[in-house]
Design goal:
single chain; 709 residues; Phosphatase 2c, domain 1; 6-stranded antiparallel β-sheet; 5-stranded antiparallel β-sheet; 21 helices; elongated; Ammonium transporter; ammonia transport; transport; ammonium channel activity; Ammonium_transpt_CS
Length: 709
């Protein structure tokens, strides 16, 4: 094959298109990685092409196209000298160089976000100087000045890889897989329980733009591989577009069915998988077959991605599913679908499939095994992976000292976190999204500083009012002491034993014992919400209302109705409530009548049998028109009443178990000779053992009433 002048122009144009694919890879990979690593990925995509150019020129081109040693490698044409007046060899070198650069770039995405920049340069050197040229010689080896003469051993057997599904893409994929396995996964990619944590790229629209650039560049990739401006080019390009579209559609539809939603990276990686797959056979298949090849590649790409996750292998951008799997399938598709008359290998369909499988296996053995061995040895002396701290901080800064607006913002915020100095605003970069974030962060800082100032003023005010508060507390203590007579007493045949234990210096419980007339004693017990000074003030209000009503000619349930109405009318803005029980003990009739407003059931004890005095209405202070009921029960001599607030029963130990009414009931059931003076102390001791060092959580009031025989 002699390259003519018009062919030279076509190859130059295609070389430019393939070179433009470097920009596509840059956009794709930097968009699919996180912001803190995007500059590192971009730098690698620029650097690897320059490194590949130098090494392919000095070593790789000679190994690939020098005079062959038994079909395995070339032995001359190192550092080739290009004649200005003879463009055929330079233009051929130029086109092949673009393919070498593409093979090297594929690795960049697979190992992104955790490989040292120097280590990546070593991998680029390994691919461009040895692995790609060596396998390239096996597949595409030619006599340089007569490209019709095949010299590679795979080519001699009839192996077909028109534009590099295996020679370019699988080579890059195999090396990327080896590097991934050696350096390990990104931090946080896989949880300890095996859960896959998907890491979203920083700019998916840029990644999609990169895909379109690659798609466009593939016109030169496949179209230029004819090495001539021939009539076959339109068909080749049509097949390329059809396969890409088939891969895109299959990945999107199949992934949508599997995942239940249209995942953002499926169309771009599906299209790329279709492009990789058709690269080997675009010159020798029909349009329908090209579409099918692409369709299958999209499904295989999706399943390969799942397989990598199942084996806990972290491919940052999907390079292995796209380039390795797509390349293997595309190479195998040559044997399955290619027109045998077009490829002219003189092999049967089955023989062609066998040769294609041999080429796939040979590529895997050379690319994966050789790169894995060499990189493992290098890793022992020079760690390929960055440190943990460098990975957390991001490779933009740790590898290149390159910062971004977001990094600078985070640095300032980290300083504020470490020092606690919030006196200054962070810097604002105008007219950027990061600047808008910084502006709103500064507004938050202003609010924080205002709150801090207000709290300082409040603290000062509290210190000034501390004396007043102490005085108020003392007043509340004196008032409560005056309204609560905590001494035991005897009224007629009734013995009263009283225990009052406020949680703090003052409490929210109130009780009153009044002899209305000989033989009739009224007992009132109440429990306000909360405790401390505020609750104590509520008990004063209860005391005031109760004192005005208790000697009136009201039954116990009418008394509750009046108390509720007066309380809401006088203190509706307090938003406070209380429970209470009123019991009239009529010794003349041997009866008690009681009414209970939301209070815990009180215990009537007769001959070691306990009867609960259940609630007869809602708590005080909730509803103006609350209706209350009362009950009358026999109360013969020898009977007892045990009255208490919920502070006795609703105490919780460290295991969140409540002391409870059942415990109190069981305690009195076991008593044969009841003595409240002794037994109330024993009950409180039992509660103390139950709490096992846990502090009390509420005020406790206990009134034991025993009717003597």
């Amino acid at each position: 094959m002699l390259i003519k002048d018009f062919d030279i122009l076509w190859i130059i144009i295609c070389s430019g298109l393939v070179f433009f694919m470097q920009a596509g890879f840059l956009c794709l990979e930097s968009g699919l990685t996180r912001t803190k690593n995007s500059i590192n990925v971009a730098i690698k995509n620029i650097t690897d092409f320059g490194i590949a150019t130098i090494l392919y020129f000095t070593v790789g081109f000679g190994i690939m196209y020098g005079n062959s040693y038994n079909g395995f490698f070339g032995t001359d044409h190192f550092l080739p000298v290009f004649e200005i007046n003879d463009p055929k060899v330079p233009v051929f070198f130029l086109f092949q160089l673009m393919f070498c650069g593409t093979a090297a770039t594929i690795v960049s995405g697979a190992v992104a976000e955790r490989m040292k920049f120097g280590a990546y340069i070593l991998i680029t050197a390994l691919i461009s100087s040895l692995i790609y040229p060596l396998f390239g010689h096996w597949v595409w080896g030619r006599t340089l000045f007569d490209l019709n003469v095949k010299t590679g051993w795979l080519a001699s057997l009839g192996f077909i890889d028109f534009a590099g599904s295996t020679a370019v893409h699988s080579v890059g994929g195999w090396v990327g897989l080896a590097a991934m396995m050696i350096i390990g996964n990104r931090m946080g990619k896989f949880g300890a329980d095996g859960k896959v944590n998907h890491i979203t790229g920083n700019n998916l629209p840029i990644a999609m733009l990169g895909t379109l650039i690659l798609w466009f560049g593939w016109i030169g990739f496949n179209g230029g591989s004819t090495l001539s401006f021939s009539k076959n080019i339109p068909g080749i390009l049509a097949n390329t577009m059809l396969s890409a579209s088939g891969g895109m559609a299959a990945a999107l539809i199949y992934g949508w069915i599997r995942l239940g939603y249209a995942e953002a990276t499926l169309p771009l990686n599906g299209a790329l998988a279709g492009l990789v797959a058709i690269t080997a056979s675009c010159h020798a298949v029909s349009s329908g077959e090209a579409l099918f090849i692409g369709f299958v590649s999209g499904i295989l790409m999706f399943e390969t991605r799942n397989l990598l996750e199942r084996f806990r292998l972290d491919d940052a951008v999907g390079a292995i599913p796209v380039h390795l799997t797509g390349g293997i399938w595309g190479t195998l598709a040559v044997g399955i679908f290619a027109n045998l008359e077009t490829i002219k290998t003189d092999l049967s369909r089955f023989e062609q499939i066998q040769v294609q499988c041999l080429g796939i296996l040979s590529c895997g053995l050379l690319s994966f095994v050789l790169s894995y061995l060499l990189l493992s040895i290098i890793n022992k002396f020079y760690k390929l992976r960055v440190s943990v701290s460098a990975e957390k901080q991001g490779l933009n800064f740790t590898e290149h000292r390159a910062t971004t607006e977001l990094h600078d913002l985070f640095t300032e915020m980290e300083y504020q976190k470490a020092t606690g100095d919030l006196s200054k605003n962070v810097s604002i970069e105008p007219f950027t999204e990061v600047g808008q974030i910084a502006e709103r962060y500064n507004l938050v800082l202003e609010k924080i500083r205002t709150n801090i100032k207000e709290k300082e003023n409040l603290t000062n005010q509290l210190e000034l009012n501390l004396g007043v508060i102490q005085s108020d507390l003392s007043t509340a203590r004196k008032i409560q002491s005056s309204i609560l007579s905590k001494e035991d007493r005897i009224i007629g045949d009734l013995e009263f034993t009283i225990k009052y234990l406020p949680l703090t210096e003052v409490g929210g419980d109130f009780f009153d014992i009044t002899e209305l007339k000989p033989g009739l004693v009224r007992v009132f017990i109440a429990d306000a919400t909360g405790h401390g000074v505020q609750a104590a003030l509520i008990t004063m209000a209860i005391k005031t209302i109760y004192e005005t009503l208790k000697r009136g000619n009201y039954s116990v349930h009418e008394l509750l109705e009046y108390i509720n109405s007066e309380y809401i009318h006088s203190f509706e803005n307090l938003n406070q409530f209380f429970t209470c029980t009123i019991i009239d003990i009529d010794s003349n009739r041997n009866k008690i009548r009681y009414a209970s407003a939301g209070h815990p059931p009180q215990f009537l004890i007769k001959e070691s049998e306990i009867q609960k005095l259940e609630k007869t209405g809602r708590i005080i202070g909730v509803k103006t028109t609350s209706i209350y009921d009362s009950r009358e029960i026999d109360f013969p001599k020898g009977s007892s009443l045990f009255m208490f607030t919920d502070g006795l029963t609703e105490q919780w130990n460290v295991d969140q178990v409540e002391f409870g009414e059942t415990t109190v009931e069981s305690f009195f059931t076991k008593k044969t000779n009841l003595s409240f003076r002794r037994d109330i102390d024993a009950l409180l001791e039992l509660q103390s053992h139950f709490l096992a060092g846990m502090p009390l959580q509420d005020d406790i009031t206990i009134i034991g009433i025993h009717r003597k025989i």
